[in-house]
């Protein structure tokens, strides 16, 4: 699908880093729907006061088009589905649709807590932004208890072939988006313990919508946030002319344990 769904010839604007699973989820949905975008690739902690105004909980992604300014990836993806229904990324039947939304919610809440906050941020983001050593108690619990619990649950849910529903949907995209981040820190799903989940994640991440993001993700994976814009420009990323980023990180507003 390559229809340019941009409004009045202007691409939709996305605020948020390619390294965020929520931004990735939104960009894959936009790719499937053929929606062109420009991106201000900031991480949430670097956002300025204008970022606070348009994202009142200081989180990414934010979508801006001719009609709305929206934060929260779920709200954004549902809006895109309502406004550009074809190709659909939510199944049609009420039961399948509800199940897809549950899987999206599971990814966005429990998987975020375990895979992002306790595992990824703890090892990568916190040392880089706040000069904090990883909390080994949290890391050990994530590695030995929480991630295995998530994988046990997924192993009972994921399909043996193809996607959850007939076509790729928000359920597949949301779950795989989180595991893409883990690839940057060498995390591999144990194929002896969770063979279906490992194969499912590989299969979903092979979708073009994910693969098109690789050059952008790779350009910034080991760069400091302040270098991201230049690194992305160098690989031809469609950047917004202006940025809501600053050079001084601020702590997030939502509380994590
Ligand atoms: N429920 C939100 C969660 C978004 C979210 O937590 N994004 C992270 C980046 S991966 C963020 O902005 N974190 C900043 C913070 O927690 O203060 C969504 O679906 O968009």
Number of strands: 4
Biggest sheet: strands side by side, in what order?
2-1-3-4
- Largest beta-sheet details: 4 strands, mixed
Distance between the termini: 42 Å
CATH-defined architecture of one domain = Up-down Bundle
Give the class-level CATH name of one domain: Mainly Alpha
> Which residues form runs of ≥5 with pLDDT under 50?
none
Radius of gyration: 18 Å
Fraction of residues in helix: 40-55%
| Quaternary organisation | single chain
Defining traits:
5% strand; four-stranded mixed beta sheet; 10 helices; Glutathione S-transferase Yfyf (Class Pi), Chain A, domain 2; binds glutathione; 4 strands; 257 residues
Please give a structural write-up.
This protein is mainly α. It has a domain at 94-209: Glutathione S-transferase Yfyf (Class Pi), Chain A, domain 2 (Up-down Bundle), CATH 1.20.1050.10. It contains 10 helices and 4 strands; from the N terminus they run βαβαββαααααααα. It has helices at 21-33, 49-54, 73-83, 94-130, 136-157, 170-184, 195-205, 208-211, 214-220, 228-234; strands at 12-15, 37-40, 62-64, 69-71. A 4-stranded mixed sheet has the order 2-1-3-4, with helices on one face. Strand 1, helix 1 and strand 2 (37-40) form a beta-alpha-beta unit. Helix 1 runs parallel beside helix 3 (73-83), helix 1 crosses helix 6 and helix 4 runs antiparallel to helix 5. The mean pLDDT is 94. It binds glutathione. Glutathione is lined by residues 20-22, 44, 58-61, 72-74, 108, 252-254.
Give a quick summary of the entry.
With 257 residues, the chain is mainly alpha-helical. The protein has helices at residues 21-33, 49-54, 73-83, 94-130, 136-157, 170-184, 195-205, 208-211, 214-220, 228-234, and strands at residues 12-15, 37-40, 62-64, 69-71.
